[in-house]
Specification:
The chain is built from 3 helices and 2 strands; from the N terminus they run αβαβα. By secondary structure, the chain is mainly alpha-helical. The two termini are about 30 Å apart. The model has no long low-confidence stretch (mean pLDDT about 85).
Length: about 80
Amino acid sequence: MGKVNAAMATQIAIEHFAPNRILHNGIAGGLKERISHTDLVVATDLAYYDVRKVQMESLFPFCSCFPTDKQLSKVLL
């Protein structure tokens, strides 16, 4: 689907349903050997994998990663 289509679908859902939180289901972040196929990995922050860090920091949004909701992370753990 791609991140552009995912962003558009998310924006439509936000405008239509006005959710308080959004959960993302993906495959990134679980690269440790001790993590199994069906394990849940709760992120503390998110980053683009296909954009250089210096580019993210020097251009909008001027950061290399985005923090997740700490309260929601506690609930998921």
